[in-house]
Design goal:
alpha+beta, 8-stranded mixed beta sheet, 16 strands, globular, VOC family protein
């Protein structure tokens, strides 16, 4: 069993409109845009990152806003819900705030003894806020969201699967342990992990496989401290029979990817070097930053990419 993985690093999804996506995460949810760059493989498309002040691993939601992408179809083989941690007693505040901003899909319930508020993103993305006691992470506060209510970062993701067996075994190999089961959901967590260390497995044997599009999660990334730990994980996964990509430099972390038995794309990402490697922390996300191989495209991209704000 591995011990290098500490919980979630980031979650990457797809959207249809960059400006709408930026407004939702910064003005409605109150997160900080910590980086605006472009898709490594499609430089005419933004890659936007939102999180806390520094873009700390375990807080970062990222998006590829493809202008002509169709809507995704929810189903199995994907992340169904991305869950953010908020302070106890704050769901009433968030219900009011989301209602005033015409956010769809609001529904309150309780799971594993925790109060939750479900809501939909601009493209029908599945999100929840969950009240968590003693989450010590320092939140980013802006656009009227104060420190008593602000999002702390991720709490968990819920994977929708036809059969949880093989994915559960994979997660246990990655260092997760089963901590509870409730209403057909198996909850796993990394002992001693970061504050985003929970994964829920939702078994839905009669549900069709999801089709990716706007509102779909593209992949979920898990955090390791550094490149040395990442290489240890890569070797262990390959020795177990997984097809793992070579290490890829993503400028703000190094990444490896592999497909899980349940169909979800997993990434293992390093906590180093971080989002302040090419911008001062006080000015993260203010300027368009380009990967080295795309720097020559700056004049073209400056004309092509839509403005995120007025």
């Amino acid at each position: 069993m591995l011990n290098q993985i500490k919980g979630l690093h980031h979650v990457t999804s797809m959207a249809a409109n960059a400006r709408q996506n930026n407004a939702f995460f910064t003005k409605v949810l109150g997160l900080r845009r910590v980086k605006q760059t472009v898709n490594f493989d499609a430089p005419d498309v933004y890659h936007l990152y939102y999180g806390d002040e520094a873009g700390t691993p375990g807080t970062v939601m990222t998006y590829f806003p493809f202008p002509n992408i169709g809507p995704g179809r929810a189903g199995t083989g994907e992340v169904g819900t991305t869950v953010f941690s908020v302070p106890q007693g704050s769901l009433g505040y968030w219900a009011d705030r989301l209602t005033k901003n015409s956010v769809d899909g609001l529904q309150r319930d309780e799971s594993f003894g925790q109060k939750r508020l479900h809501f939909a993103g601009p493209d029908g993305d599945g999100f929840s806020l969950v009240e968590v006691a003693n989450d010590s992470r320092t939140p980013w506060t802006s656009n009227g969201v104060d420190g008593d209510h602000a999002i702390r970062g991720f709490h968990s993701v819920a994977l929708r699967l036809r059969d949880e067996g093989a994915t559960s075994e994979l997660l246990k190999f990655m260092g997760y342990e089963t901590v509870d089961k409730s209403d057909g959901v198996t909850r796993l967590a990394v002992p001693g992990g970061n504050d985003a260390s929970v994964i829920d497995l939702e078994t839905m044997p009669n549900i069709a496989r999801g089709l990716q599009g706007a509102g779909s999660v593209h992949h979920v990334a898990f955090a390791v401290e550094n490149r040395e730990k990442q290489l240890e994980v890569r070797k262990a996964l390959m020795d177990t029979g997984y097809q793992v990509t070579p290490v890829i430099d993503r400028d703000y972390f190094w990444a490896i990817y592999f497909r899980t038995p349940g169909g979800v794309l997993f990434e293992i990402a390093t906590n180093e070097p971080g989002f302040d490697r090419d911008e001062e922390r006080a000015h993260l996300g203010e300027s368009l930053m380009l990967p080295q191989q795309h720097k020559h495209l700056r004049p073209i991209l400056a004309e092509h990419l839509p403005k995120l704000e007025d």
